[in-house]
């Protein structure tokens, strides 16, 4: 079994340094903002995004530069800021098994904390003094907004296609991973082809990650998810397992049309999805994107860091075993 613990062993000290730096970087003057930010980082998380940045740095450079480390930290801050806003929009009470920022403080503080983290990440990004990286990462923040708007206006919309779902998943998840992978390569002064390969790696990895997350929303339990199963469905965020299940059965349509308003609707929907091939087809879709990620690395120089990047693809699939 591939786990996050053994995958990241080549950069365990680098990740410890990252954790130490994160709370220092968001050192807000106001104690409430600082407490909100500290609450987020103490909640943990697997740090997959910054870990990938550090591994690409090792794969493309003789050593990890200070700029690479800062990019890894910026990536995690942007990701965390997006989670704060996501939780407010979706009205989630818990994240990673702990209370969300708006549950601990209030919605206003949560929105401001998210805005503050985005602002801090932008400031540190500008101080990298690399225009290409600034342009690449800045686009991610607009992608987040577009992804949230798209999701917001398509709640409970069963007419969406799998292609629409993939496009939304790119904006919400894969964009940041793709851009940070490309940026890590840019900071190593690699050629355009290598930069593009790492972008494709991040894009496909991010899409696979989101699809697996959506499968776990159906088959996971609250202890591992850190939130109740079916939370995405309840919020109207229709995902790959449901779209594939809708192609097989009409039983789900009335549940979605009434927006899962009855107390037992979510559990009934999960039961129906499990009886179809929806989950298997979603797994197959995730596997396709994992293969896309691995293909993007085919022509890159083999190293321990590159092998670790490939292992991450399998780790993502192993999350549902």
UniProtKB/TrEMBL annotation:
Cofactors, names only: Mg(2+)
- Give the UniProt record's GO annotations in the biological process aspect: isoprenoid biosynthetic process; quinone biosynthetic process
Molecular function terms from GO? metal ion binding; prenyltransferase activity
Concerning Pfam families, the annotation shows:
polyprenyl_synt
UniProt KW keywords: Isoprene biosynthesis, Magnesium, Metal-binding, Plastid, Transferase
Return the SUPFAM superfamilies for the record.
Answer: Terpenoid synthases
Top-level division of the source organism's lineage: Eukaryota
Q: Which PROSITE patterns match?
A: POLYPRENYL_SYNTHASE_1, POLYPRENYL_SYNTHASE_2
The similarity comment for this entry is: Belongs to the FPP/GGPP synthase family.
NCBIfam families from the xrefs?
prenyl_cyano
List the protein's name: Prenyl transferase
């Amino acid at each position: 079994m591939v786990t996050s613990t053994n995958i990241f062993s080549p950069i365990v000290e680098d990740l410890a340094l990252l954790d130490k730096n994160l709370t220092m970087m968001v050192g807000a003057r106001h104690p409430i903002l600082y407490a909100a930010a500290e609450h987020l980082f103490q909640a943990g998380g697997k740090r997959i995004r910054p870990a990938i940045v550090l591994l690409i740095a090792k794969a493309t450079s003789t050593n990890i530069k200070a700029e690479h480390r800062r990019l890894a930290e910026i990536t995690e801050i942007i990701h965390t800021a997006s989670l704060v806003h996501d939780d407010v929009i979706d009205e989630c009470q818990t994240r990673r098994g702990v209370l969300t920022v708006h549950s601990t403080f209030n919605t206003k503080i949560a929105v401001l904390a998210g805005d503050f983290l985005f602002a801090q990440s932008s400031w540190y990004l500008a101080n990298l003094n690399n225009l290409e990286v600034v342009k690449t990462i800045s686009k991610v923040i607009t992608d987040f907004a577009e992804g949230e708007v798209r999701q917001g206006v398509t709640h409970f919309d069963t007419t969406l296609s799998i292609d629409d779902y993939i496009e939304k998943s790119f904006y919400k998840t894969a964009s940041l991973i793709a851009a940070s992978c490309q940026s890590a390569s840019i900071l190593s002064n690699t050629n355009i082809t290598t930069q593009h390969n790492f972008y494709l790696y991040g894009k496909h990895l991010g899409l696979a990650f989101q699809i697996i997350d959506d499968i776990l929303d159906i088959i996971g339990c609250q202890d591992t998810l850190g939130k109740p199963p079916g939370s995405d469905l309840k919020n109207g965020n229709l995902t790959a397992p449901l779209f594939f299940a809708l192609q097989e059965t009409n039983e789900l349509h009335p549940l979605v049309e009434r927006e899962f308003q009855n107390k037992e609707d979510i559990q009934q929907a999960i039961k129906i999805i499990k009886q179809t091939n929806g989950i298997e087809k979603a797994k197959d879709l995730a596997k396709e994107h994992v293969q896309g990620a691995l293909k993007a690395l085919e022509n890159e120089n083999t190293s321990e860091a590159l092998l670790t990047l490939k292992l991450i693809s399998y780790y993502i699939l192993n999350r549902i075993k």
